[in-house]
Fold:
Amino acid sequence: MIREAVARATSRLRATSDTARLDAELILAHVLGVDRSYLVIRDEVVLAPLVASHYADLIEQRVAGVPVAYLLGYKDFWNSRFTVSPAVLIPRPDTELLVETALRWLHGRPTPRVLDLGTGSGAIGLSVALERPDASVDLVDRSPAALATAEINREKLHVRNAQLFEGSWFDPVAHRCYELILSNPPYIAPGDPHLQDLGLQREPLDALVADEGGLGDLHRVAALAPSFLVPGGRLLLEHGHDQGADTRAALNRHGFVDVQTLRDLAGRERATGGVRPD
Structure:
């Protein structure tokens, strides 16, 4: 029965997941193609042998550290459901701060041009594009596999005001300028103990780790961005909770003004932005 299957899976997951019951329910709902509420309403339904076998296999993958989002093939972010794969980072709730801030900064700017660097699944740039259909949004990533995932999301979400470009940072958009540049670059230092987390071990390392103690890509984007911003344009970078001061210093060093760091709901410094002077 559903009730017993969820109970067994929850017990199996407790050693490796802080959200064992939720994981068990999400995975079974996915296997059955139903909402989680169905599991409660119809908890006495007997699982067919093939369904039970598939469910058990996915639970064992979760025990081994495969993130739930990869098992389901999607992650909800902002107002949309994004396809994800092991080729891209799983969008985190913290990153919604970039979308929220971008929309606030773009308010009152007609037909803005926006750049999302290191787009991965496209979650940041496509969310902005959906909220601002008058905007022109460019999404850049050096990984062909990541861009393929972003293209799936662009088509699935029917986004017509976004373009995808393959290449490293600003290389593919060398002759363009923007009102807003957004990026969630790699910012974890090599050897950081967080990289031993079973879930992070499954995500693409080159989208997580940067040189210079995790600050290398933050510094690179800050240094190059002024050449790609219109006067009065803004840069917004996500970073680690302990990297706010270093990121502010980098933006100040490269001529940005009105540099400010934004905090997440837990009060941690999570993103820093600045303005290219007129």
